[in-house]
Amino acid sequence: MRLADRLRAALDPASDAIGGDAFLSAGLSFTDAAVLVPITDRPEPGVLLTLRRADMRHHAGQVAFPGGRVDPDDADAIAAALREADEEIGLDPALVQVIGTSDRYRTFTGYEIVPVVGIVPPDLALTPHEAEVAAVFEVPLAFLLESANHVRLVHEDDGRSGEYYEIMWGEWRIWGATAAMIVTLSEKLRAFA
């Protein structure tokens, strides 16, 4: 079975599930956002991730999928994810085979994020936006799907404790919302890696 078919079979188009830390996000109103989960089409697929610049106002120095707010001009979350990936890493939307979306994720900072799963050709010459992205790197999909690599940690916020995931791949620390979305995807995709 082709990669696209396996991914499509794993994503539930009727799902309207929402993940996130319900305790910390209770009472918030949410801003719509979308990220692209670019999976490279190679015998051992990988996932492209970005490292945000250390001097960014929000989420400085964090590993993330390319993405951001859904703008009023975006047709939908998929259009927003493709636009943001083009702006952040120079990924031409025409090169992305959109497969579908995964469960929405709510952050305690007030975003409701739609992860858009797409397949991209391997070894693209990407151009990171120099004001936003310090690096673009690829992590093997099989590594991200392996539950043994999903470490659950506890944090304190204003006297309340919550949990988050961390995934270490070499020098790269993937944590927070990005790791949580990976864990959710892994539950859907593990059987198809």
UniProtKB/TrEMBL annotation:
Listed PROSITE patterns: NUDIX
Ranges in coiled-coil conformation: none
Alphabetical list of InterPro entries matching this protein: CoAse, NUDIX_hydrolase-like_dom_sf, NUDIX_hydrolase_dom
Keywords: Hydrolase, Magnesium, Manganese, Metal-binding
Cofactor: Mn(2+); Mg(2+)
Domain Nudix hydrolase: 30-166
Pfam families assigned to the protein according to its UniProt record, in alphabetical order: NUDIX
PANTHER family per record: MITOCHONDRIAL COENZYME A DIPHOSPHATASE NUDT8, NUDIX HYDROLASE
Protein name according to UniProt: CoA pyrophosphatase
Organism field: Sphingomonas natans
Classification of source organism: Bacteria, Pseudomonadati, Pseudomonadota, Alphaproteobacteria, Sphingomonadales
